[in-house]
């Protein structure tokens, strides 16, 4: 591991973070919230630290896979730490742990909050909070479609974006090309949603913040009551649509823009993803109807599909307290938390494609018992899946369950009840936001004990970086030259 | 699939069941409970049905793998149905579904009960209840060490008993040889425990019944309060020891009897199994101490190690209501439910060896990211594990989690709360007995709705037969000739 080169890149990332800290300034001036100096000071700190790292750590070596791992993990960590400066300096969140929790939740597009009174925050700070989602989402798209496939993490090789241009193995140019194209789509969708939300009566500020949170499948709202605050079926509908879009592989969106619309529905993962949303919505509607929660079909559809999309895509917006729904509906939502969005989207969780391949693997195993001599391969969209990739996915599944179990145990040890601790861990590990019990959609994470919060911060980071990216750092041989 | 041959073997099994229905007669006469005719009538029904099947279904063909699957699954089902006759005919359990639940729970060595007043049952019926455990345990030992490895189910090939004698591929003689040796060990351990329990003041009847339930890792007690009814640290100790012994691969016990005691502790699975019991006990003791549940070390040790062993080996005996323990202690117990005993023991769950190999697989996956060109195999006790076997184990893990999820959803749909439905499913799927919530150690399964009970019956059967044995029957091609 080339530590010097890693530090240099982290320095560059800090300079970028410093630059983005100027973005809330217009809102600070417009709303005259008087905390413009907070952003300037935060930016200066980032520039000084980043500048020092960038100029003193010089290395002529090329970036290799090992530095790739280190940059990704430490990059997100550095962002969470330095991105928390505006909360701390303004005094809006006095505890450093809470501020880092909120920022990590932002950059990992989780959306779990420790704030009890969201609307009490200055507008520009709410903007920064939503911006951390959007920047995090940008990072995720490139991470999952360009960086992780090259690093070979958890079977992500399957989902790499088809990148035109140089095929040389040097990481930088390929990542840059991919990034530009995908960010174009991301930017475009954000703008369209902002416009549509404004047409529904949202202010430009609220529309922009909610679009940031939707496209990043984050879930931070500028309102205490989340999307329920608007009580508009139009707004619910627009956000439902864009949550579903944000949970789709961005490489597919790019194909559509290039005029290859037919490719879109050929994706097996996409079809299964939409199928799960459909089936889950129908089942939940049936139980919400028989359970007497909603009597009108339109109302039932509106709330049920919103919640299913919000949880499945790991956004975490709320229009209702689903803990008042029948247990079976809550159970289905809990299940969707584990599945998550498509690979290559901003959604978290285990990803639809992995769950799909897991099922296919299990099916092949049973098939082989009946036909011991038959050869049957696991396929995804008519193409056989490489054995190495399949093993990586099986390993990912085992590690995900393992970390969920250990995390829940640690949070339970800090004194929370069973349902709350387990659902808090999956809500953070799958980057969703709200869980069940005392961290449910009508509650927040403020009351979680210090130790529990620390565990959840690590869960958010590990979940977002597909687990393995973080785990490799614990191998002593990783650090040797 | 040769249906005629399968039916013939099921007929033979029914004749055996009919014979074993005479076993409660001495107790019926001794305690003069007046229901001796119940057993005679039940036996006659078994003899008639079994005799008809055995004599009319004639087949000269050899048993193949396919009939193996069918005989195992239908054999257990037939036992659960016909074994419920004494409950039904005596009127002790009026509902057929409840009677089948209780019998399936017995033969699968689960130990979940729908009885609210256990001591109200006639003594001879309590004996029959415990005997279903013991007979089920006999079946499991042979199943896991001789039959499943030959059928190739879920990686069980790893754990087959070394069988002396003919190496031909014909199933019957090998199974018979293996069965005789292993049953010898099983019988011996049962006798020793019965003696030791009698030395602690138990009646012969109670000692025998509890030994049946211990060696089978079943959990049915003859007392309403389970083992807590005796309130004796000696009895707790004896049962703890024998639960731990029953959770060990019986092929290892056999090695010890043959004088190969050194082999015993060489087993990596055994060492991990004992290590988990030790670590879990220590952690739970610490939390029970700091949580103020127990103040005396000896008392803390006695209750903690009993409960850890009872859950880990999937026995399900109780000496205390662990729902009054700190949440983290309950969480650890919930975790142990999934792990279960060693492969080749009467314990259920996923088995220690599978969990161990899962961890090793995950470790190799992360290692390969750091060293992409290195070759590192997954090993168990210095021997590399065949890739096919590893894939079967990964498939087993995925299916186990999948069935747990679907089962919990179905039970939740019948109207139970989240913790109760999920823990009821794992308690049945891992063949433990008690769960948490409304099916906790101080409760029973009487109140579970009809649909939920039916799901749990299927879970007990699938869990006991290592899932795949049952799943193959759902492949249409399995039934073709």
Explain what you see.
2 copies of one chain form a homodimer. The first copy, chain A, has helices at residues 3-20, 25-30, 36-56, 65-82, 85-90, 96-107, 123-151, 171-199, 204-215, 233-246, 250-257, 261-266, 268-290, 297-312, 327-339, 352-370, 387-413, 418-429, 450-464, 468-471, 476-479, and strands spanning 379-380, 383-384. Chain A is mostly helical and 481 residues long. The first copy, chain A, has a two-stranded antiparallel sheet. In chain A, helix 6 (96-107) packs parallel to helix 19, helix 8 (171-199) crosses helix 9 and helix 14 runs parallel beside helix 15. Chain A is globular, with a radius of gyration of 22 Å. Chains A and B meet through helix 4, helix 15, helix 16, helix 17 and helix 18 of A and helix 4, helix 15, helix 16, helix 17 and helix 18 of B.
Please provide a brief summary of the model.
Two copies of one chain form a homodimer. Chain A is 65% helix and 1% strand.
What secondary-structure arrangement, pairings included, does this model have?
The structure is a homodimer of 481-residue chains.
Chain A: H1 3-20, H2 25-30, H3 36-56, H4 65-82, H5 85-90, H6 96-107, H7 123-151, H8 171-199, H9 204-215, H10 233-246, H11 250-257, H12 261-266, H13 268-290, H14 297-312, H15 327-339, H16 352-370, E1 379-380, E2 383-384, H17 387-413, H18 418-429, H19 450-464, H20 468-471, H21 476-479
Helix pairs in contact in A: 1-3, 1-4, 4-6, 4-7, 6-7, 6-19, 7-8, 7-9, 8-9, 8-10, 8-11, 10-14, 13-14, 13-15, 14-15, 16-17, 17-18, 17-19, 18-19
